[in-house]
Specification:
Strand order of the largest sheet: 7-3-11-10-9-8
CATH class of the largest domain: Alpha Beta
CATH architecture of the largest domain: 2-Layer Sandwich
Distance between the termini: 45 Å
Largest sheet: 6 strands, antiparallel
Number of strands: 11
Amino acid sequence: MLSERQLTVFKCIVDEFIKTAEPVGSKTLIEVYDLPYSSATIRNDMAELENLGYLEKPHTSAGRVPSSKGYKFYVDNLMESKLDEESKKALQTIFDERNMEIDDVIKKCCEILSQMTNLTTMVLGPAANTQELKHIKLFPLNERSAVAVFITSSGHTENRIFQFDDIVAIDDIEICASILNDRLSGTLISNVVEKLNDLEPILAANVKHHEALFQAFINAFINFSKGNTPYISGKNNMLYQPEFSDIEKVRKVMNMLENQSIWRQYEQREKHEKNGVNVSIGDNLIEIDDVSVVSSSFRLGKAEEGKLMVVGPKRMAYDKVIGMMEYMTKTIEELFSDEN
């Protein structure tokens, strides 16, 4: 159990390190935070906080920095999420544009969040294996191309443009769409390719140039079943964080951001939760110790759920990030949930 003085010293260390990225010493705490304690008393508290695992001492400095354990304690016990009026007004401008589609609003949220935090943000849509195919619509563009619209049970839509080597008749496109809707409606997206292969003889018997259409659908559903690619904004913001100045670390961070499987696995794991927002600090899944992920889910329907995430160093302003994410996800649900 930490004393009130130790809690004060610890919170000041975390707040100062978040601002400066420099190890914090007793002299800084007295000068910047006007603490009414002697340097010796503060150094003793810092030593005790280090022994308890809340602080770490870099080899090249006499100051201390928060540990992963320390950050988790800070988020759970000392931090209060906040959203100042200026930030709230900036975020509200996104939602004032009533003519924007939900996908555009969410991407805009992602972009403005990365700008306001100087961190990397991403949006992760629902995994394909949780959705069923509800309906397919095919619209011919010309004799050699068509647009296919896939509608899932959650109301999510995916568009694909099909390009054909041979001329495909409009009648063939309409017959193909009718057969697929009759036979595939209600099928999990992840199972569509298997069922589609079983339907090839039926397509061959009813559609004159079935090969082109069949192959186009196979390719489309293979990509669809892999899940939605995360939308990322502010990827280069990671390059300006002092924690990632080393070129090898930069390479690992960039590979991490582009690895979709990491984020799908991350989505399924239980994480450190604070007021409806998940905070993962130094997660082994990410394989880079000095990275934190703050995420918040939003539900648009009974089955469709998205996730907004902020990725950055452990030394991030959790109070500001969490405050903005709470506001954004709550507003998205209020405006776009089909239950409202």
